[in-house]
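stuck on this:

***
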Amino acid sequence: VGIGQDITGRLAQEQEYSRLIDTANAPIFGVDRSGKVNVWNKCAAGVTLFSDAEVMGRELVQQFISEDYRASVQEVLDKALKGEETANFEFPIITKTGSKIQILLNATPRRDEFGKVMGVVGIGQDITGRIAQEQEY
């Protein structure tokens, strides 16, 4: 005797979610519970010049955050893994060329269908230009 469950609707929802993230005009990235990148949309790739293939499975904090910001970025991720959101957190992310891009981030826990936190998703904004402009005045 076997019992089955139709998950067609859930799979369609997940595909739509993935499509929305990938085509958003904001850099969006996610990490799993161990801090390894598992979401990297086209805008994140455009801002950092790293393709999703180059970042998937790599540790976000250790490999893409400058040393002076690693502790504070890790703290934001740890809070999200405990279920707490963080809004308007500023930090630099290192690009493929070695330059730094200033990101304004909202970090949110990512939950499975049972409500258990399975990672973090961050929706960001490149504020490098704005900061440079503010420093001129």
